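Exercise 7. Predict the joint structure of the components listed below.
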Amino acid sequence: MQNSNSGCSSSQVIPSEMLTDEYIDFRQYLSSVEITAIEHEVAAMENREAAGIEALKIVQEHRGWISDDSLLAIAQCLNISSAQLEGVATFYNLIYRQKVGHYVIHLCDSISCHLTGYEEVLHTIKAHLGIGYGQTTTDGEFTLLSNACLGNCDKSPAMMINKKHYHSLTAESVIAIINGLRQNVEQNYDR
Amino acid sequence: MTDNSWLEAAVAQALTKPLTHLVNLEQPLDFNGYVRAGGYMGATKAVKEFSQKEVLAIVSESGLKGRGGAGFPTGMKWSCVPALQEKPPAHVNTEQGNSYLICNGDEMEPGTFKDRYLLEGVPHQLIEAMIIASYTISANKAFIFLRGEYHVAAQRLQKAIDEAYENNWLGAKVQGTDYQLDLYLHTSAGRYICGEETALINALEGKRAIPRAKPPFPQVSGLFGKPTVVNNVETLSNLPHILKHGSEWFKTLSPHSDPGTKIYAACGQVKNPGLWELPMGVTIRELLYVHAGGMKDGLQLKGLLPGGASTDFLTAKHLDTPMDFDSIAKAGSRLGTGGLIVLGDQHCPVAMVLNLLSFFAQESCGWCTPCRDGTAWAVEILTRIEAGSGTEADLSQLDELCDFMWLGKTYCALAPGAVEPLKSAMRYFKTDFDQHIKQGCCSYKKVVQNQLGASHE
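Solution:
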């Protein structure tokens, strides 16, 4: 993005402030822990670009989501254009390009869960939290997203909250799970 | 791990259930436990007793076919790697280390969960298998491409990789030989298309995961432009046992069908969903009524997908079809991943197909038009039909879409995979489609309403 000339005719010189607007010094922006982890992944690959997904996941792990500034910083760190990295970041379900809650509920909506009644679980979650797909509760605790088949088809309906899978869901059990997490919120975010 | 009785019982099944006999989902065997149970013997034989071409010959002779869905013979796939060819093309570098092995662990086919079972339950088996495969294709570097949602598998695989390094099964001079292998775990971030092997390669290179045009095939020009073999988790997991017990033994596992065992599964509206390692070629009837316990109470079989979401529907008249590649193909479908998705007679087949097509529309990578527009268009039409506002013209439009999205018109098999359940559903459940259009409603809705209260006791 920093060297893009989109919208300008090619003969025009791009004013330098337009370039610096989108420039972020990744060494200032990313923490040393993040940079070390990214460099560890880069070392395993043939070029810096190949560590894109890993780098996005590392920064997301620390910050909860990938903001525009994070995207620019990672792109800089990997020496690729931010447009290219954006193409990768927005391609994936588990890279969040918007702020999400502490707990991200990924409810499986694929075929086995469909045949065993995930819709009822979905309605329950929506009613209980007062949010729809893509939304976050006002207290910033829960975000609801759909997910393609989670591979728990023998114990469907299933969902994943952060890194934990839950299965054999019912309207009752899903409320108990959410309430349990809400109670734990102060002590342990269990990412 | 101290429970020796479990291990003794498990090892007793080594020759009949090679893939799953050591699976322990609670606490998988660590390196020492796996070795005590006979692990790493296949890899020892491969790297110490055989040349690359000898291992290739054994695997080819075993008749092992890919378990990821396409059923391509593994030995033949490997033999396309320039280093293993009798007369490799002059311009190709066949030096040791100029190729890659990738394990495809991006299991995202709806209704499929067999690889998760192996990854979480016996991670060292996969590491051993990848050592054998990497050695054979002269790869010094290998990757496990794991779907991002499999967090437990990721943790256990990384631990197994670390243990393999500590015990000199990975790194420089593997077991004192001149062979070197580095193995990396890549966890993806949730996208079905990454299971397509060329999209997977793009994803590993840090690019957007869209499929590549073929040829060139990955065995010639794959990851970073080098010869690359991509094999499925279950396919690879057979290798230690084929090396250990021989290709003849492998063929005796299923004398009347494709060689070896298969991890079959059943989910949906059956009594006991689950998975079972069985000789290749058991009938659908045995799988459904013996292993999965039959239909859920009160339901009759309406139809089933034999191997994941992207296979054609089969019905009760196909129950005696053996679950192997050729027999299922003759019945008009595909073995795919070998996991039944079972539909009962009180659930709307149009709603089921709409769910399947919604998945494909969402997961289409958008690279080629027939898939990007075709799947979304089909969802729009099916939504209309399911809601009772469809017309006869919608049915012929769906027929046309099935043609637009078929093989040869797209970069990869995603759109043709979406066509398979759609087209077959329109054939087998035509009366249901017609009912929706003629009566302007779904006749199953009442049944569902009545069942809602009792469905989760």
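Discussion. Chain A touches chain B through 48 residues (CB under 8 Å).
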